[in-house]
């Protein structure tokens, strides 16, 4: 693998991480505090839900890009499957950092899968479990955690 390909892969990896982290920070630090000032819980819930749905595609593309470029970067650095199977490898400084990053990626992917598969679902119309908007929506509960009146 050429050095130019490795540099391109690392650059794409960093760009994808910046886009993903930037999107998360925007949602948490800009959008939610701005919505708290609206004092309109149904609108707040709808805006958070709609923004989250629009960011979902960007989030998944960046996460997949991070996994692919991360794997490519490991191969370019000469990390082999045999090394990954060795407990001695995971005791090295590089292996320890890699283990931490892989655990973080696994947690992020799991949370993303759960939130993607459960967002936007509501029980059937006649169900006794049907939520009463907006207080029982997950978004409203999340906004209340940020101090929003719901």
Strand-residue proportion? under 5%
What is the approximate shape?
elongated
Coarse structural class: mainly alpha
Say how many strands there are. 0
Mean pLDDT: 82
Uncertain residue ranges: 126-136
Range of helix content: over 70%
| SSE sequence, one letter per element | HHHHHH
Biggest β-sheet strands, sense, barrel: none
Distance between the termini: 55 Å
Domain count? 2
Number of contiguous helices:
6
Radius of gyration: 20 Å
Short description:
Helices cover 75% and strands 0% of the residues. The protein has 150 residues and is mostly helical. It folds into two domains: 1-78; 80-118, no CATH class.
How would you portray this structure in words?
The chain has helices spanning 3-36, 41-76, 81-85, 87-90, 93-118, 138-145. 75% of the residues lie in helices and 0% in strands. The protein folds into 2 domains: 1-78; 80-118, no CATH class.
Helix-strand layout with pairing:
Blueprint: H1 3-36, H2 41-76, H3 81-85, H4 87-90, H5 93-118, H6 138-145
Helix pairs in contact: 1-2, 2-5
